[in-house]
């Protein structure tokens, strides 16, 4: 008798949970609704190869068809009908868009999901310690990064250009900037004659196997005054 009461109690609990699920619009006898994966997309860089395949989980009837519903893909990247997102981005920026997946059922089931692709500069250059005057010397440092999947043959060149047009080398390095390097500090500095100088920082990176060339430049917003010296 006790076992019968327990069985009736378990059946009652199951019916309660099933009723709660139905009240929320869910059918507990079916798998979860259609969900698009992945949830986020990797970043890329201009001319970098990009290849992502969307897929779906849940209850649906093959075959899924994919398309961009709204927003903008990075120029150079496209979404195929089979869910493959591929190409090479042409410029840096942040691109937001919504894609949809539709199954082969009758009636057809459809789901949408929003995404962002960040296209970052392959090689970046920024001030770490902006160029400044110390006595009769101009010095400073920059940070460089390599966001690509390749090692970059890098040339780092810094010149102080006087108001008469004469340029003086105050920093130079040539080395391999390995892939994935973020925020490497490159110092520069040199003693200079009395005068006003604009500081130009030039960064040129080359990848031999792809023939890619990357360029970045910084310049002081106003001339720096060296007041000590001849």
Which characteristics define this entry?
single chain; 230 residues; mainly beta; Immunoglobulin-like; 2 domains; five-stranded antiparallel beta sheet; three-stranded antiparallel beta sheet; 10% helix; disordered N terminus
Q: Mind summarizing the main beta sheet?
A: 5 strands, antiparallel
Report the top-level CATH class of the largest domain: Mainly Beta
CATH topology of the largest domain: Immunoglobulin-like
Q: What's the architecture of the largest domain, going by CATH?
A: Sandwich
Cα separation of the termini: 110 Å
Overall body shape: elongated
Q: Determine the structural class based on helices, strands and strand pairing.
A: mainly beta
Number of domain units:
2
Task: Give the SSE string.
Answer: HEEEEEEEEEEEEEEEE
In total, the number of strands is 16
Gyration radius over CA: 30 Å
- The average pLDDT is 87
Count up the helices. Answer: 1
**Residue windows where pLDDT falls under 50 for at least 5 positions:** 1-32
- Work out the oligomeric state of the chains in this entry: single chain
Helix content: under 10%
Please report which band the strand proportion falls in: under 5%, 5-15%, 15-25%, 25-35%, 35-45% or over 45%.
over 45%
């Amino acid at each position: 008798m006790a076992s019968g009461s327990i069985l009736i109690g378990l059946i009652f609990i199951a019916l309660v949970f099933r009723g709660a699920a139905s009240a929320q619009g869910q059918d507990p006898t079916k798998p979860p609704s259609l969900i698009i994966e992945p949830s986020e997309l990797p970043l890329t860089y201009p001319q970098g190869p990009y290849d992502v395949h969307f897929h779906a989980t849940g209850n649906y009837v093959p075959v899924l068809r994919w398309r961009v519903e709204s927003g903008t893909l990075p120029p150079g990247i496209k979404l195929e009908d089979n869910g493959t997102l591929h190409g090479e981005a042409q410029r840096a920026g942040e691109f937001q868009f919504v894609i949809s997946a539709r199954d082969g059922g009758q009636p057809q089931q459809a789901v949408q999901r929003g995404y962002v692709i960040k296209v970052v500069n392959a090689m970046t250059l920024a001030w770490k310690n902006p160029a400044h005057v110390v006595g009769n010397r101009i010095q400073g440092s920059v940070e460089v990064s390599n966001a690509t999947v390749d090692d970059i043959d890098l040339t780092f060149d810094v010149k102080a250009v006087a108001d008469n047009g004469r340029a003086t080398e105050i920093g130079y390095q040539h080395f391999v900037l390995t892939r994935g390097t973020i925020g490497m500090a490159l110092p520069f500095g040199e003693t200079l004659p009395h005068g006003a100088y604009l500081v130009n920082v030039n960064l040129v990176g080359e990848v031999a196997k792809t023939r890619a060339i990357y360029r970045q430049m910084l310049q002081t917003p106003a001339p720096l005054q060296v007041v000590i010296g001849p």
